[in-house]
Design goal:
By secondary structure, the protein is α/β, with parallel strands linked by helices. The protein is built from 15 helices and 18 strands. The protein is about 35% helix and about 20% strand. The strands form 5 sheets. The protein has a 5-stranded parallel β-sheet, with helices on one face. The protein has a 4-stranded mixed β-sheet with strand order 1-9-8-7, with helices on both faces. The longest helix is centred in the C-terminal third of the chain and has 20 residues. The radius of gyration is 22 Å and the shape is globular.
Length: about 450
């Protein structure tokens, strides 16, 4: 099969919040290509309901830092945590400049809420569709950039490398055509691996391809078994992505109860603790779900703060203003990933990783609620600035890339076969690193 070849300055694989924010901060004289294996908007960032954290004021730093470290079981990288928190106010100001409309109080001040693991109100939101609001506005800004090209329904199937340096990617479009796309820098912003699990809040096409490819090229991974289980996905026997019931509802007073209507845990503990408590209660009761009651939240507050959750539950036959809803834990987020520093640099030269794909240690063993969007944006901007400084002059010519490409398989195996092998490779690595996780959550 003859492969087409194209050359760019920077290739960003993935169009979630991290990839988009990175593109916006790259120098305008760089020719940037963004690719996604699905629609532009179909990233897990788009699904984020609860909000995005922000240090409220200087007095909040110590508290925010401790909350993040405590949730991460103190396995966090202190440098990354400090960088994220100190960059939060700048990032929020940029989002507002990009047109993001955060909810405000009657006096026009930013309206902060609280979620599990937080010792104070420091989470900004747009109703219960914060991710959608952020991604939509950032997508609009990216579309205004003449130096950024976005291609949908094309997937990365390999890296083009030589002597531990990345020179581009091999991609396959929806017609099965393979392409060699060369670049001076490649940024992996492909999200997590929820598509590998039967019960996940993630889009099913987000299957951890980057991790399989990284393993084949001996790019270093870190804590790939640190996988977060969200306590409250709407219980359903239907196949496909599970609908997330935001942690923010528990922050506003929703209570977890069993079939007898009895409360059995502190809903504002970090996610891993709440998820474990739910699993224990389900085992004790012999059920496959528990219930979430909105009884203590005024109806007008539900309708104003959580309209998307209200409408989605109505579609499933539940009126959260009148009755509790069945919920169950589901795979939600990956704290580990491709080892990266706070500028996105990986163990391979010219290869960067950001967002959920990367592991810079900011989350430790468990992510604090609403830190994901912030983390993605802060370190995406860091990576863009580093790439701008480190990417100059001409890239390798296409003849050099073609020589490397000759070492690659003539024809990659058919799509389903490659997906299966990627899944086996990643799950094998997770099992190797996380026996305890598998023993506890093997039914997810």
């Amino acid at each position: 099969m003859k492969r087409k070849q194209q050359q760019y300055d920077v290739i960003i694989v993935g169009t979630g919040a991290a990839g988009l924010f990175c593109a916006l901060h790259l120098p305008s004289d760089l020719d940037v290509l963004m690719i996604t294996k699905d629609k532009l908007e179909n990233s897990d960032s788009y699904l984020a309901q609860g909000g995005i954290c922000c240090m409220v004021d200087e007095d909040d730093f110590d508290s925010y830092y401790e909350d993040t470290m405590k949730a991460g079981h103190y396995e966090n990288n202190p440098k990354a945590v400090r960088s994220m928190i100190m960059g939060s106010q700048h990032t929020i100001r940029e989002l507002i400049d990009f047109g993001v409309d955060f909810d405000r109080d009657e006096k026009g001040r930013l309206n902060f809420t609280r979620e599990g693991g937080h010792s104070r109100y420091r989470i900004l939101h747009h109703q219960d569709v914060t991710g959608k609001e952020i991604v939509t506005k950032v997508v609009d800004r990216v579309k205004e950039r003449s130096n950024v090209t976005v291609r949908e329904y094309i997937e990365m199937i390999d890296l083009v490398t030589d002597n531990n340096c990345c020179y581009g990617i091999v991609a396959r479009d929806s017609d099965g055509q393979e392409e060699i796309l060369s670049a001076k820098a490649v940024v992996l912003a492909t999200g997590g691996l929820g598509g590998l699990f039967d019960h996940s809040t993630n889009f099913s096409h987000i299957t951890g391809d980057s991790f399989a490819i990284a393993l084949r090229h001996k790019v270093q991974l870190k804590d790939i078994s640190y996988i977060q289980i969200h306590p409250t996905a709407l219980y359903s026997k239907k196949q496909g992505r599970k609908f997330l019931i935001s942690e923010a509802v528990r922050g506003e007073g929703a209570k977890l109860i069993n079939e007898k209507g009895q409360r059995f845990t502190d809903e504002l503990k970090p996610r891993d603790i709440v998820a474990a408590a739910i699993k224990k209660e389900m085992e004790r009761q012999g059920t496959d779900h528990v219930y979430l009651s909105f009884e203590d939240i005024p109806k007008e507050q539900i309708l104003s703060h959580f309209p998307n959750i209200y409408e989605r539950c109505l579609e499933e036959g539940y009126d959260i203003t009148k009755e509790p809803i069945p919920v169950t834990p589901a795979q939600h987020y990956l704290m580990g990933g491709i080892l990266a520093d706070t500028n996105g640099r990986t163990s391979m030269d010219k290869l960067y990783a950001i967002g959920e794909t990367a592991c810079n240690g900011v989350h430790g063993a468990n992510r604090l609620a609403s830190n994901s969007l912030l983390e993605s944006l802060v370190f995406a901007e860091n990576a863009a600035l580093a790439i701008g400084e480190e990417t100059s002059g001409k890239g390798k010519d296409l003849g050099f890339i073609a020589t490397i490409a000759k070492k690659l398989p003539i024809i990659y195996q058919e799509k389903k076969g490659l997906e299966r092998k990627n899944k086996e490779l990643v799950l094998s690595e997770i099992r190797k690193q996380g026996k305890e996780f598998y023993e506890q959550w093997s039914n997810i």
